[in-house]
């Protein structure tokens, strides 16, 4: 029962973070959505920041599972692996399942940095992506002039790219077209071909 309730809480938090973002989400609405008292929610998670951290741990776990699946193909090119990761993050965002967190909230940042499960997941994902980035630079499919950290952060930015939402709201393109366009601008740039 305890784990099922925590799972329901984290699912609600993830949905609210994806729909509204951290600043607009309230603990009251999370408790109401799950059907528990606010005091009961605080027995599971002592703060709003801890709620967001739990949602981010879940996203990291999903990302790691996705990367595990990609690594199962030993013949895949590093660039194709990176494109698959970027595509997955954009699809998760378009599906309304990617938490939207502010980059400047110091209390949230502190909570995330102090959350071992989150940091372990982030380091694991970053190391795996970093290995594919350096391999793609070595084989010439990504410019070696770019610092690997800049490429890594560019990939992470796709998970919270506002362009996806703007294109979706325009109702001019299918989900697949949106992902393909943003993927193209990310990996091929804006130059004419």
Automatic annotation (TrEMBL):
<keyword id="KW-0804">Transcription</keyword>
<dbReference type="InterPro" id="IPR050109">
    <property type="entry name" value="HTH-type_TetR-like_transc_reg"/>
</dbReference>
<feature type="domain" description="HTH tetR-type">
    <location>
        <begin position="3"/>
        <end position="63"/>
    </location>
</feature>
<keyword id="KW-0238">DNA-binding</keyword>
<keyword id="KW-0678">Repressor</keyword>
<keyword id="KW-0805">Transcription regulation</keyword>
<dbReference type="InterPro" id="IPR001647">
    <property type="entry name" value="HTH_TetR"/>
</dbReference>
<dbReference type="InterPro" id="IPR009057">
    <property type="entry name" value="Homeodomain-like_sf"/>
</dbReference>
<dbReference type="GO" id="GO:0003700">
    <property type="term" value="F:DNA-binding transcription factor activity"/>
</dbReference>
<protein>
    <submittedName>
        <fullName>Helix-turn-helix transcriptional regulator</fullName>
    </submittedName>
</protein>
<dbReference type="GO" id="GO:0000976">
    <property type="term" value="F:transcription cis-regulatory region binding"/>
</dbReference>
<feature type="DNA-binding region" description="H-T-H motif">
    <location>
        <begin position="26"/>
        <end position="45"/>
    </location>
</feature>
<dbReference type="Pfam" id="PF00440">
    <property type="entry name" value="TetR_N"/>
</dbReference>
<dbReference type="InterPro" id="IPR023772">
    <property type="entry name" value="DNA-bd_HTH_TetR-type_CS"/>
</dbReference>
């Amino acid at each position: 029962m305890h784990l099922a309730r925590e799972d329901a809480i984290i699912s609600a938090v993830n949905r609210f973070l994806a729909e509204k973002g951290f600043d607009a989400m309230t603990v009251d609405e999370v408790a109401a959505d799950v059907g528990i008292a606010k005091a009961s929610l605080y027995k599971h998670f002592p703060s709003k920041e801890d709620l967001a951290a739990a949602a981010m741990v879940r996203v990291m776990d999903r990302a790691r599972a996705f990367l595990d699946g990609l690594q199962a193909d030993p013949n895949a090119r590093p660039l194709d692996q990176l494109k698959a990761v970027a595509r997955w993050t954009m699809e998760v965002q378009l599906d309304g399942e990617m938490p939207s967190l502010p980059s400047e909230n110091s209390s949230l940042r502190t909570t995330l940095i102090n959350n071992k499960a989150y940091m372990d997941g982030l380091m694991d994902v970053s190391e795996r992506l970093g290995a594919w980035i350096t391999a793609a630079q070595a084989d010439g499919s990504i410019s070696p002039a770019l610092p690997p950290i800049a490429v890594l952060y560019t990939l992470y930015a796709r998970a919270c790219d506002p362009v996806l939402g703007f294109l979706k709201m325009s109702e001019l393109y299918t989900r697949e077209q949106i992902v393909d366009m943003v993927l193209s601008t990310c990996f091929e740039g804006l130059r004419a071909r």
